[in-house]
Write a structure and sequence with these properties.
The protein is an all-beta fold. Helices cover 0% and strands 40% of the residues.
Length: 162
Amino acid sequence: MVDGTTGPLVVDPNAKHNMSFVVRDRIPKMSDMSVTFLVFDRKENPLVGNWHQEGSLTCAGEKLPIVTEPIRELVITADGGFRITWHPFESYVDYWGRYEHDTSTGTIRMKVDSGNFLPSDFRGIGRFSVDIHGVLTLDHVWLGSRTASKKPRSCSYQFKQG
């Protein structure tokens, strides 16, 4: 509940994963405002968050040299959306799409919807895991190349939140 001026928004502890609610407010001499929130349980969807690439692994599990052009923003939302940006600037996003995941099997399927830059070498089917240190690993997913240079394709991306 919001007290009308400032204050925390408290979600009922009995709220279920994927439950949505709307907060409305009337500001004098302005139009009504509303925001829809989607409740998610991190156990049900550990992918949600703002991530940045920390590294890559070869198919043999060896760390690749320093990534010359890391993905600086991988935003995964609770409603099944994602956005990728190599060089964030204001509201620019390279491309975006939808994803489905299965927490019990660790599988992920990502599909590009549109964007400002669409990599021709995107492959969105693979596996995911989040370790105890909060590192998100995407295995056998290839989010594309930002430049035309021939870089070694990795088998795994590693991302950290923040």
